């Protein structure tokens, strides 16, 4: 009977050791997954927020222009101009009437602005190499304003 009590204690200690080992591995795995997936979600949310803010500006604009190198987008509205420019340290900056300096998106490896008479497309590549694309239409246009005043 005394030998049985020793084996019960030994098996309990062995089970506790295995449990602690599994818990430490689980903790390490959770920390790894958190550091791996969290920046990806943050980057995606930031880009989506940038696209949503740009959509608001675009819907209030009468025309959109981009530079030949596709690194700058200029939106014209009744109050003036709003421009978005890609700067070398990986930032997209918003300026109103060529004044101010608001960083609207960071950690950008590259961006391309494409504008024509009816729509605007923005292609963003983040520093992890993930690509994001957004396209939207102009709601107000200069020619629509001219048609209304002619009638």
From TrEMBL:
<protein>
    <recommendedName>
        <fullName>Competence protein ComGF</fullName>
    </recommendedName>
</protein>
<dbReference type="InterPro" id="IPR016977">
    <property type="entry name" value="ComGF"/>
</dbReference>
<dbReference type="Pfam" id="PF15980">
    <property type="entry name" value="ComGF"/>
</dbReference>
């Amino acid at each position: 009977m005394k030998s049985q009590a020793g084996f019960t204690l030994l098996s309990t200690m062995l089970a506790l050791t295995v449990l602690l080992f599994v818990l430490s591995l689980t903790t390490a795995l959770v920390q790894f997954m958190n550091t791996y997936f969290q920046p990806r979600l943050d980057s995606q949310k930031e880009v989506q927020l940038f696209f949503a803010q740009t959509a608001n500006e675009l819907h209030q604009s009468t025309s959109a222009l981009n530079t030949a190198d596709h690194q700058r987008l200029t939106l014209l509205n009744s109050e003036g101009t709003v421009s978005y420019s890609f700067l070398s340290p990986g930032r997209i900056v918003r300026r109103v009437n060529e004044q101010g300096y608001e960083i609207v998106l960071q950690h950008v490896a590259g961006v391309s602005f494409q504008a024509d008479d009816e729509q605007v497309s923005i292609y963003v590549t983040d520093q992890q190499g993930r690509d994001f694309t957004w396209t939207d239409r102009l709601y107000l246009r200069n020619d629509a304003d001219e048609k209304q005043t002619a009638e």
